[in-house]
Write a structure and sequence with these properties.
Layout (H helix, E strand, L loop, with lengths): L5 H25 L14 H41 L6
Helix pairs in contact: 1-2
Length: 91
């Protein structure tokens, strides 16, 4: 099996960086969140907007994390298979 792993590793790195960006973006949005409950004043529209943003970021963060994990495991399995076949192409 003669396979060049560099493009596959580059794709995995792009996914991993996307997960990191989502993590940093979530931390930035969550820093604006007010954790106190304001019962008398009613719902705050700004906090509702922040909560909606956090839900979207969380959803895409989870999706990207699962994709990155599955792609990484598949890449590792492919590498192990190529080693067992006897021709590792990693230099």
């Amino acid at each position: 099996m003669n396979l060049d792993f560099r493009p596959l590793i580059a794709i995995w790195v792009v996914f991993a960086l996307a997960v990191l960006v989502m993590f940093i973006r979530r931390k930035m949005v969550a820093a604006k969140e007010d954790d106190n409950i304001h019962v008398m004043s009613g719902p705050n529209p700004e906090q509702a907007l922040i909560a909606t943003k956090l839900e979207v970021i969380d959803k895409w963060g989870k999706i990207l994390t699962v994709i990155t994990l599955i792609f990484g495991l598949a890449l590792a399995a492919l590498y192990i298979y190529s080693v067992f076949v006897g021709r590792p192409s990693v230099e």
